[in-house]
Design goal:
heterotrimer, A mainly alpha, B alpha/beta, C mainly alpha, A: ABC transporter involved in vitamin B12 uptake, BtuC, 15 helices, 2 strands, B: Rossmann fold, 2 domains, six-stranded mixed β-sheet, 40% helix
Chain lengths: 319, 253, 287
């Protein structure tokens, strides 16, 4: 036993699913393509969150800020410089995301626990407000983003971003870097005594996660055709990835994608059956997941002692 | 003339009105085993914190190879060559024993030269040295207290230290375990690591130390070879109180 | 002189912030839970006042105790029967749980009341008086006085009543309190109920001067957090000072930086306090 990638079988299955998802454009079905692209986008956001929240233990409630920054970078490149290439947009978005994460990370990552969580939430809200006040970025009205010739190109691009994020997470989890993150999560003081510079590695974790979110945002902006502050910094894009990582398994490589698939499936069936109250049901889903699966499905698979051990841990959470 | 190895110079540590350390000075020789004893509250752990860079002394300094430890951030202290174990042992609960030790091997003094695989190999070696190889794949949270102490030692050794500070590593061990621990520490010392050991077990300290330093109420009250220090009336008085010492003088056993 | 008007406005709204922060601070300080549904509770209090006013013409000031009691009961039940299962769980769990609850409550409100803006207009709504160049609305002044009264009552209750002292003992050491026979699960529910009740009362106060929408409570979570950090966590005085100071800061911020940037101002204030003086204005240094 060992390794921080998570249950090996689950990982193989998930990679298989990822490969299958690559073939969705061949179905020539717009609905499935949209759905699949949504899954891949949320999985990427979840993977990005997973690095700082799952592996490093710093629960960020503001990663949507980087998604929005990526979306606006892509949009601005089109609007102001008529930049056609999606690749350039994604690369620039990554740079913007990393820079912001590094700069904001220095003060914000000094905070811990609740303080860090709320500070990141405030960061996302503040960024949305600031963007809404900048005319050069379209202010509150937002603006249109480039279309691409082949619509499926956006699907492929999102798939590449998601696969790349998953690969990056896998490589990190098998390297020294991953262990630095986990050491910080388990006991930051002890990690420092063992030679891990907490500030440096926290910023690295956040920056890589920000890069993933920004890349997803850049592709999303193009696929959506239009962005404005509420779209780019949507609460859904902020919270769903966290719940997905939680459902699938925080701190694993496969967890985010699994959680994204399951939750998107639930969301879609709720949306089609109860259009009025689907957000309400989603709130109920979040409550149930959090109470009964506080560490996710993959944790269930890996716990020695099975269901009884899980129940025992859950028992320790109450008063 | 050899350069001073580890020098503790007039170290004072004030927490508000409390003087935890009140001007402690001594030298540690390379390759020695220094026992650090004293009643509860005498400042032993505070001194350890100063030497390992966890606290900065209010006044005075601790110098290692001439460099002031207080000038170095906590995560860089191990790269100087100083490692320590903690009294309250909290391993990385969700990592295996081997992984716990590997973190030290990855980021310690020689960490830069090691990749992930080499770090795990080194971790396995260290698990064998401290006698944890049969538990190397188990989660650290599953270990008993003596097991955790061994893990703590292995993690500190993974940093390839020149100086190892041991803070009550033998507390809670039974007699057999204490003997094993002493054997282990002697092996480590013979391998070239200088030890500073904080302990309450007099026999253990006496058997392993080359020098003993005694603290009481933040001051150094004795220093020297184990036999003479432990027989000194001043030391006895500090531990057991002046009335006991007076009774001892009146009617020796 | 705009300065004095801004200052007065800030203090007036600061009283409401203090009540908002007080409930939040209680739950955070004693149970270590950041209740992201606090805003939803505020909204429920506001809509309680609205329904009572629209249906039976109950003056909102009279709805304050009603709102308090209703939300207290609601909060007590939520804690006892839902949150209690994860009350000692790590931060992520309680965060997401209260977020999910917030989603639920806000969406139920959307279903019942729809998204359109509502308001309460009483006979005295527009009345105001002037001191020199400064105009003070009567409603807002009374709101401030009621807010101060609520704060004072809570302070007295927490320090002298038996339950209040049991709560404070529990906050210091939950296991020791349990050993001395304190029924922790009940007291936790009392604390959460109080937090909700205070939010409800704050909601009623808010409904007097601001318009109502199902999502109206959400911004107040960040406000509550900043006020607690600013004033110092765990004391009634801290919530009061934090609320008043933040009210003034926001008022000046709206004047000189612009009204659309409240959250940006909040974030900057938060970061500055946490970096320069993390314990807040009145907070004690914890080891």
């Amino acid at each position: 036993m060992g390794g921080i990638t998570g249950n090996a079988t689950a990982l193989r299955v998930t990679v298989g699913i990822l490969v299958l998802l690559a073939f969705v454009p061949l179905l020539h079905n717009g609905y499935y393509e949209n759905l699949g692209r949504s899954v891949l986008m949320f999985a990427t956001l979840s993977l990005g969150w997973n690095l700082i929240g799952g592996y490093t233990g710093y629960v960020s409630f503001g990663n949507v800020a980087f998604f929005g920054l990526g979306a606006y970078t892509s949009a601005a490149l089109w609007q102001h410089w008529h930049q056609q290439s999606l690749l350039v947009a994604v690369l620039c978005a990554i740079v913007v995301g990393v820079v912001f994460a590094a700069v904001l990370g220095l003060p914000i990552l000094r905070l811990r626990g609740h303080y860090f969580a709320i500070a990141t939430l405030g960061m996302a809200l503040a960024l949305q407000e600031i963007v809404a006040n900048i005319d050069w970025l379209g202010a509150g009205a937002g603006y249109a983003v480039r279309p691409l010739d082949a619509y499926s190109s956006y699907y492929v691009a999102m798939w590449i971003v998601c696969a790349g994020s998953m690969l990056a997470t896998y490589l990190i989890a098998r390297s020294k870097l991953g262990y630095a993150f986990v050491a910080i999560r388990e006991n930051e003081e002890a990690a420092a005594v063992l030679g891990v510079d907490p500030t440096r590695y926290k910023v690295i974790a956040w920056a890589i996660g920000a890069a993933m979110a920004a890349a997803a945002g850049a592709v999303f902006a193009g696929a959506n055709g239009f962005i404005d502050p509420p779209t780019a910094f949507a609460t859904d894009s902020n919270v769903f990835p966290i719940v997905m990582a939680l459902l699938g398994g925080v701190g694993t490589v496969a967890g985010p994608l699994i959680g994204a698939i399951i939750l998107t499936a639930i969301n879609e069936s709720l949306w089609s059956r109860f259009p009025q109250i689907h957000t309400l049901f989603f709130g109920a889903v979040i409550v149930l997941v959090v109470v009964f699966l506080p560490r996710g499905l993959l944790w269930l698979l890996d716990t020695r002692g099975g269901w009884r051990a899980v129940a025992a841990t859950l028992g320790a959470y109450r008063v | 003339m050899s350069e001073a190895f580890l020098t503790i110079e007039d170290v004072e540590m004030h927490f508000g009105g409390l003087h935890a350390l009140d001007g402690v000075s001594f030298e540690v020789e390379r390759g020695s085993v220094t026992g650090l004893i004293g009643p509860n509250g005498s400042g032993k752990t505070t001194l350890m914190n100063c030497v390992s860079g966890v606290c900065k002394p209010t006044r005075g300094s601790v110098r290692f190879h001439g460099r002031r430890i207080a000038d170095v951030p906590t995560y860089a202290v191990c790269r100087l060559g100083i490692a320590r174990t903690f009294q309250v042992v909290k391993p990385f609960a969700n990592l295996t024993v081997r992984e716990n030790v590997a973190v030290g091997a990855m980021y310690g003094r020689n960490g830069r030269e090691r990749g992930a695989r080499a770090s795990f190999e080194r971790a396995q070696e260290l698990c064998e040295i401290v006698g944890l190889s049969h538990l190397a794949g188990r989660l650290a949270s599953e270990l008993t207290v003596p097991g955790r102490k061994r893990l703590e030692l292995a993690k500190a050794l993974a940093l390839d230290p020149e100086v190892l500070l041991l803070d009550e590593v033998m507390a809670g061990l039974n007699a057999t375990e204490v003997d094993e621990a002493l054997r282990l520490l002697r092996t480590v010392n013979e391998g070239g690591v200088t030890l500073i050991v904080v302990e309450h077990l007099m026999k253990a300290i006496a058997s392993i130390s080359t020098t003993i330093v005694v603290l009481a109420e933040g001051k150094k009250i004795a220093q020297g070879a184990p036999a003479e220090v432990l027989a000194s009336p001043q030391v006895i008085e500090a531990y057991l109180g002046s009335r006991y010492a007076a009774r001892q003088r009146q009617s020796p056993p | 002189m705009l300065f004095w008007q801004d200052l007065v406005n800030g203090i007036l709204v600061g009283g409401i912030f203090a009540v908002v922060a007080l409930g939040f601070s209680l739950v955070w300080g004693i149970m270590n839970i950041i209740n992201l549904a606090h805003g939803a509770f505020i909204m429920m209090g506001a809509y309680t006042a609205y329904v009572l006013f629209a249906t039976w013409h109950v003056d909102p000031f009279l709805s304050i105790p009603i709102g308090f009691v209703l939300l207290y009961a609601f909060g007590y039940c939520i804690q006892r029967f839902v949150i209690n299962y994860v009350v000692r769980a790590p931060l992520l769990t309680t965060f997401l749980l209260t977020f999910g609850l917030s989603l639920l409550i806000v969406n139920v409100a959307l279903l019942i009341f729809h998204g359109d803006t509502k308001g309460i207009t009483t006979s005295y709504s527009g009345a105001n008086f002037s001191i020199g160049a400064v105009t003070v609305g009567w409603t807002k002044l009374w709101t401030l006085l009621v807010a101060l009264a609520i704060t004072a009552i809570m302070h007295v209750w927490l320090s002298s009543s038996r339950t209040g002292r049991a709560i404070r003992a529990m906050a210091l050491d939950i296991d020791a309190a349990q050993l001395t026979g304190v029924r922790v699960s009940h007291l936790y529910a009392v604390v959460f109920g109080l937090g909700a009740g205070l939010a409800g009362a704050a909601g009623v106060l808010i409904s007097l001067s601001y318009s109502l929408q199902p999502s109206m409570g959400d911004p107040f979570v960040i406000t509550a957090f900043v006020c607690c950090v600013l004033g110092g966590l765990g004391t009634v005085q801290g919530a009061l000072v934090g609320g008043l100071v933040y009210g003034v800061l926001e008022s000046f911020g709206a004047q000189y930086i612009g009204t659309g940037l409240q959250d940006a101002v909040a974030l900057v204030v938060l970061l500055l306090v946490l970096i320069v003086r993390p314990r807040g204005i009145l907070g004690k240094v914890t080891a």
